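User: I'm preparing a small set of examples for a lab meeting where we compare how different chains pack in three dimensions. I only have the primary sequence for this one, and I'd like the structure in token form so I can line it up with the others. Please keep the answer compact; I'll paste it straight into my notes.
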Amino acid sequence: MKTRRAVLGDAHVDRAQANTTDVDADFQQFITEVAWGSVWTREGLSRPQRSLLTIAMLAALGHDDELAMHLRATANTGATREEVKETLLQVAVYAGVPAANTAFKVAKRVFAEIDADGEEAL
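Assistant: Understood. Below is the structure token output for the 122-residue chain.
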């Protein structure tokens, strides 16, 4: 939970926890233990590297809501906007221009929201 909160922020995790029901309680526990407790805490890749890889995979797979969440999380992971742009160019080459086009639209929206909210600039 410590890593999940460090990456996604307390507000996001608190919302996810508050919205947990009997239907998804086991899933919430699973992602906290496996994704955040086992994978994100491993040595071998830095937090910014893991962040950028996650962004690339979510963009390639078209998971726009999760992509937006992880783009917002770059404020906590140390991945820069320049690195995000480069990552999305890689997505264009290896996952297709339509996937990257959508991902760039999501990134533009998320970064504009961050800027408008006066959140820490990346």
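A couple of notes for your slides: Helices lie at 2-8, 10-18, 25-39, 47-61, 64-77, 81-95, 97-117. The chain has seven helices and no strands.

User: Perfect, thanks.
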